[in-house]
Amino acid sequence: MTVYADILIILNFLVNYFMLLAVRRISRSRASRLRLALGALIGGVSSLILFLPYPSFVITVLKIISGAVMAFAAFGFQNAKAFLKNLFWLFAVCFLFGGLMLAVYLIFDKDIMIYASGIVYFDVDFTFLIICTSAAYILFTLAAKLTEKKAPKKNEYYITVQKGAKSFSCTALMDSGNSLCEPFSMYPVILADKSVFKVFEREISEDSLRVVPVTTVSSETLIRAFRPDSLSIGEFVTDKVYVGESLTPLDEYKIILNINLEGEMQNV
Asked: For the chain, what is the domain count?
């Protein structure tokens, strides 16, 4: 069986993209589709280790390294715990997909697979591979939905931000990891995606912008923030809050609420 490098990369890119989608769904990590595509591309290119004349244990180490790079490219590095969680689920999804393809091999045509340098390669068409990859994705997301706790739903709130003539409404996440405050007023800062900031850019004057310092694991930086006319969360309404522009794209939730708002909301 002839293995073509370009086909190998394309097939693995598609497979890895579906796998990273599953990881994002299971771990509830925030990652844009562009970052997922970048991670999938890295995984697709790394499949070329199939052609390396190294022992199996070396190939295994290289595969672990490529998996770590994929996870970093797709989900970033917020902290060691979050990174290892994403990496664990990535390998778990890989094992599930490999098991599914092995089952197909044992049940059906045994000529569709070869083994070389510690890597399994399936000589199948795109349609067949997409069906198997989609099946693995669906199985994992169904398992995640069935096993996820119902309690976390209480951390989701439908909110409305009002500034001048503009308003923005969405389902936001109350994140215990966000306790950021504007340094002068000490008002809590909620984090918003760049797209949310664009909604209000004509309503925000230069002198109304604030700069809020943010400390991450590896560095300190600054983000822009503005004070809205109102933030409505159900019956709770306040203007003692700032909306900060997130350093990273927010995909599933466009706004991340500040945990300090939780106590104020309970007093309503």
From this structure: 2
Regarding beta strands 255-258 and 189-192, do their DSSP bridges make them parallel or antiparallel, or are they unpaired? antiparallel
Please say whether the beta carbons of 173 and 243 come within 8 A.
Answer: no
> Tokens at residue 30, please?
């925030």
Contacts for 129 with CB less than 8 Å, ≥ 6 apart: 11, 14, 15, 122
Question: Containing H/E element for 22?
Answer: helix 5-27
Please tell me whether residues 234 and 138 are part of one structural domain: no
**Structure token digits, residue 170:** 């969405």
- Judge if 109 and 56 occupy the same domain: yes
What stretches of the chain adopt beta strand conformation (E)? 113-116, 119-122, 156-163, 166-175, 189-192, 210-215, 220-226, 230-233, 236-238, 242-245, 255-258
Domain range enclosing 220: 152-266
Final residue belonging to a domain, choices 96, 130, 147 = 147
Query: Helix crossing, 80-107 with 126-147: angle to 10°?
Result: 130
Residues 138 and 158 in one domain: no
71-119 pLDDT per residue, tens: 999 888 867 888 888 889 888 888 887 677 666 666 655 565 554 443 4
- Within this chain, do residues 157 and 141 fall inside the same structural domain, yes or no? no
Q: Of 100, 118, 147, at which residue does a domain stop?
A: 147
pLDDT by residue (tens digit) across 14-48?
778 888 888 887 877 777 888 888 988 998 888 78
Q: Is a pLDDT exceeding 50 seen at residue 152?
A: no
**CATH code (residue 261):** 2.40.70.10
Give the DSSP per-residue string, 224-236: EEE--SEEEETTE
pLDDT in tens, 213-238: 987 666 788 999 999 999 999 889 99
Q: Which amino acid is at 77?
A: F
